[in-house]
Amino acid sequence: MNYSLEVNSSGMLTEPSEDKAYVTIRRLQTVMIPIICIIGIVGNTLAAGAFLSASLRTTSCCLYLAVKCLSDIGFLSSLFIVWLYRVHVPIFNTNGLCQLYVFLSYICAFLSVWLVVIITFENFIRISQPQWVGIICTPRTAKIVIVVCVTLSLIFYNYPLWTAGIVNVDGSALCSTREQFQNVVMVLTYVDTFLTLIIPFVIMLILVPLITIAALQAYERKKRLFRNARRESKGSSPETQVTKLLFAVSVVFLALHTPGHAIRVKLMIVKFLQHVSPSYLDVTLQRLFEIFYYMDFCLSLAVYLIFGANFRKVFAALYFKRCQQQNELRRIQTNVNNTVSKYLLKGNGESGVVV
């Protein structure tokens, strides 16, 4: 979002380009965005391949995570196009690509957010209502939910295809909203804020504490069950591994999205109630928190590898199979060479005795 700021009621200049902290954060964004995009696109591509492998795609949460990886790739691709515009590669201001970028960014952001909400809800069911797991947490249900989410996103977010275009601003061609649709887009933007920011965030703030409480209660029940046993099982059950991974996805999402959401809500409230422009600090913090927000699309693979034990096994088997085969061949060849060497040494020793 570009800010065009004036002098506010206190007389303080609020043009962000004049503030050193703001300029520093913008430069940091310019450096970090391509790194985030490249790492995120590669990581999410590898993760999607693992989640869609034969051994994982039979689990509902893996289908959700696979689609989330694909939507993250779409979002990062559109973000990279914006970065190219920032470094004066103006393909963003091409008719057709302009509309496609806005359309793609809206849909992918919507899907990524709501898939995390769905994953969090499924995790809540797995922990607190295990009797419903066989009904709700199934691949068939996941496919239906995914189709519904994609369909709804296509229906609601098709408006950039006909409201966005190349607009002449001060002699420069920019990708923006056509003048005749500005009021419509303003209303739809506020609706989008509720759909992708306020509603999901409130749901997450409710579900994550409930999951934490349910997990602690389940742990206490497990301790009581094993209190009189000679020893507890050392390994985690598959269900525990799944809930651990899903909980990590939810917590990372909240940690990286909360700062940006908080500042956006504050700016909206200030604009409506006080009718003043944002301060240096608000605009600078928003730019800083945008980096945190983008990081959520980049760090997914690391989260899956750290907290997903089964995912790690499948990932290693899928992408490092050739390395494992080569190591196995080297091990076999080494064993053969050692055996042959021992045989030859033994043969030489016997020959010496005969002589």
Automatic annotation (TrEMBL):
Bilayer topology term: Multi-pass membrane protein
Chain ranges passing through the membrane: 31-54, 61-85, 100-121, 142-159, 194-219, 240-258, 291-311
GO CC annotations on file: plasma membrane
Location within or outside the cell: Membrane
Residue span(s) of domain G-protein coupled receptors family 1 profile: 43-304
Main localization category: membrane
Keyword Repressor: no
Matches recorded under InterPro entries: GPCR_Rhodpsn, GPCR_Rhodpsn_7TM
Pfam families: 7tm_1
Gene Ontology molecular-function annotations: G protein-coupled receptor activity
The keyword Transmembrane helix is assigned to this record: yes
Descriptive protein name: G-protein coupled receptors family 1 profile domain-containing protein
UniProt organism field: Patella caerulea (Rayed Mediterranean limpet)
Taxonomic classification: Eukaryota, Metazoa, Spiralia, Lophotrochozoa, Mollusca
